[in-house]
Amino acid sequence: MTASMFENITMDAATAKEKRQRIVSFTLRPAQQPLTAGSIQREWFSTAPIRALEYLETAIDEARSVGYCQEIRMVPSKRAGYVQLSWGGANKFCTLGDMLGWARGIHPGEGMQVSHRCHNPRCMLPSHITIETPIQNNARKGCLVWVDCPHSCEDRILVCSHLPSCIKFVPGFETWEDFIRWGVH
């Protein structure tokens, strides 16, 4: 990182009272990117996992259970069912996946994506996401995860080769962890 790539935004000379009232006193940002309501909200949530968790807690009350997922009731606003979130005057400043990552303290770097292990872009559970490259993320599409045992027993055969593994609902098991523990050959 060079000094020419970033500019400092510092507090102007203000009274001690004004200084105490400022929420953000110092930010590094690329010089060519102006501050917008969306960038401020992204920074607000991405720098403190507790803020992201609090945001999600307000939405979880409205969620519904679908398999092992807690699905947000908000209408997807992007292709493939992705939900974009708004807050504090910033419209569609991040996706639900971004917020879930921030809640876990995960920040996808350049060339990385938030991936829903459960293949459900409306799922609100932070444990159902991981960070990976676009190639790895796209490789999850169409993953069978498990297949029925050919011997007609009630166990399944786990066929997912992704790490961490994909998550797919299995009737008769309360959680994915229960299935992994007791339902796999």
3D architecture notes:
This protein has helices spanning 16-21, 37-46, 49-60, 96-103, 134-139, 176-182; strands spanning 6-10, 26-30, 64-66, 69-71, 84-87, 90-95, 113-116, 129-132, 146-148, 156-158. The protein is of the alpha+beta class and 185 residues long. It has 2 domains: 48-141, Homing Intron 3 (I-Ppo) Encoded Endonuclease, Chain A, CATH 3.90.75; 142-185, no CATH class. The strands form 5 sheets. It has a two-stranded antiparallel ribbon. A two-stranded antiparallel sheet has the order 3-4. A two-stranded antiparallel ribbon has the order 5-6. The protein is elongated.
Produce the secondary structure layout:
Elements: E1 6-10, H1 16-21, E2 26-30, H2 37-46, H3 49-60, E3 64-66, E4 69-71, E5 84-87, E6 90-95, H4 96-103, E7 113-116, E8 129-132, H5 134-139, E9 146-148, E10 156-158, H6 176-182
Antiparallel strand pairs: 1-2, 3-4, 5-6, 7-8, 9-10
